[in-house]
Structures are given as structure tokens and as C-alpha cells.
Transposase (Dankookia rubra), 203 residues
Amino acid sequence: MPHPPPPPGRRYTPKRPWSPMTDAEWAEVLPHLRTVVMGEGRPLRDARQRIDGMFQVAVSGLPWHSLPEDYGKPDTVSRHFRRLAHAGLWLRLVGACANPAAPPALRRIEYFICRAARRAMRILGMDGARAVQRVGLLTALPVWPIYLPHAAALALVRGAVGAWLAGFRGRLLPEGPTRELRRSLRLIRFLEGKPWHRRWAPP
């Protein structure tokens, strides 16, 4: 299905098949990685290989366990991806790509970066989606912009559902309806910007 026309000042990034980063492309990513993770000058062990692996999973859309062993253990790489998401790397790179003065080497991997940011949305929630929407790289959004919910309306719905559930606290209910309602409340919290899993929440 084709994308709807982007709003003025925003754009979709053309698709590009995954390939390992070149030296020039890695040179554009490395300063951002150093800034958000460990400060300038500290060595990064296997960082380029891990970022390449993250880009491969993000572009392919496959689960982490499909990652080739050359890029490290899938569990380790996925944990590193989540830490980088919380540290702000993917949103920082999206912002750098949106800059009209972005270097050509960074523009060449813009699709990889957008796909990584899109995968990180399940961790960052609506706060991340709104940040991406502000800079205008729509490929990094988990849905088309017209489907992004209004945060204030979601807060009202969440409050109503939460109050309804509170009225049944301590009472026996069939497992099915209660479980579905709690899942709906969890989805609403996610759309408001809360992490989907507690273990993904920032410390």
C-alpha cells in the first residue's frame, strides 16, 4: 500500500537493502554513539559490528534470534539496542539525518537509522513517536502520522478504564474479560509514552 502524501516539510526515506556500514558511514555514527553512551575518547568494544547487526535486524524486520553469530549473541545485541534506545541514540541519529546539512555518508544510511528508530518505538512509546514526528522523518514512525493518537484524549480514556477496573478490585471476575481489559489499559499506557515492558523502563 502506498504511503499517504507527507505533510509539508516532512518526508519518507527511500528503502535501501541492508549492507554493512562503510568506513565513512561509521565515522558519522561514532560521534553520536560516544556522546550518548560513554563520552568522548573511551574505546568501544565491537561497537561497529553490533550496530551493523542492529541495522540488519531493523531493516529485515526479523526477530533478534535470527541475527547471525558474527554480530554477537542475539540477547546481548538486543539488550544493547534497548540501552541505546533509552540513551537517545536512535532519536539523535534521526535528528541528525533530518538536518538539511547532514553529510552524504549519513544520508546513505538514513533508511537503516529510521528502521532502527521505528523498532525502538516499542520501547520509547509515544514520546519517541512525537519526537520523530517533530523532525519530519516519517519512515521512523511505527504508523502513518494520521493514525497517531492524541495524548490528551488517551489520558482521559486511560483514566476512565482505570477507574472502571478499580471498582472491581478484590472481586472475582472471569479471567478472560479482565485480562483483555488490562491488556487494553496496557496498550493505552504504551500509547501515552510508557514502556511496553517494565524491564525496558529506564532505571
Q: What stands out?
A: The helical segments are 23-37, 47-60, 74-87, 89-98, 104-108, 110-135, 151-166, 175-191. Residues 151-200 form one domain.
